[in-house]
Amino acid sequence: MLLFYLFLIFTCDVCVSEKSDLGYGLNIGNAIDVFANYGDLSQVTQVVSADYEDEKQEPTVPFSEKNIRVFLNATSIEDNRENMSNIEIQLCETFEDLLDTYFSNFKIEGTDKPWKAFMGDWISDEILRTLGIIYDGKPDNCCYVLIKLTKTHKSVKLGDLTNVSIKDYVEMAIGKLNFSDPVGVRRFMKSYGTHYIDSYVTGNFIYQVFKYKRPWYNILKAKLRNSRQTGSTNLRFFFSSFFLTQVGDIRIASGNKSVEDWARRNLRDGQYLYSRPSLLRLHYSPMLASKLNQFLDNGALLGLSLKTLRPLFKDRRKGELYAEIVENDLQLWEINA
Fold it and tell me: Is the residue at 194 inside a domain?
């Protein structure tokens, strides 16, 4: 009877510990199950603007996916210095290249297309609308240029895991894990995750997509290459209606509608008899760039690195087996997304 009571007490302690280690914010080193929201991670991470109108919009949080503490004494390196980047002009040969570029600061070990984890379940119309472009049924027949201005608020990197201890309840679960039982392995994934948060960056960025037919895009690409060599940056003509198929709406990663409205009103570029919003105005107006800098808060996730849970396993061979199962599943999900 005494042994039974001791077992109950120990089991309850494990349950309480697991619950207290559960979180929904950005907890460096914590583990998440990538498959729980694969294809729609953008619903639990603030990475793209939202296509809605809400006057009473609540403050956004960069990350709200369920995660669990698996390492007992992990350390991290944190940098809270605010940093404003220069205007970035990024060339994208195809629609998929546009998504690869947009999510270039997101890494998920085991997949070559991190954007599919975030938006793989979305239809092309939804994705383009979120990026500020009107869907025309032929997204792959055109080329794109992504212009953005980024403000970094916080970056965190996980420390060395060489001598890090594992939480007791995780070690117990690992001890019971049978790699010849796929159902049991996937049950472990759901309970303790597939990847851990190795690093992240928060802040905000404002962006705009321009759409080109390929011949005009090639001319712009040559002009940009030449401007980098000569130092000339007069590109306004190449972003005029003579070249463009479509001008995307200005969007902000945090989805803050008041900042988007400010940008549409103030970042207008005159083109012949009319004007339209263009982020290129920031390139020619340091005053406007300085004003916008004040509005870019810490409401978006700018970068995220997720690594497979190899370090949980003291037996290196078991760690590799676990990673192989996770990454094989991830490749299949990526193909089917």
Answer: yes
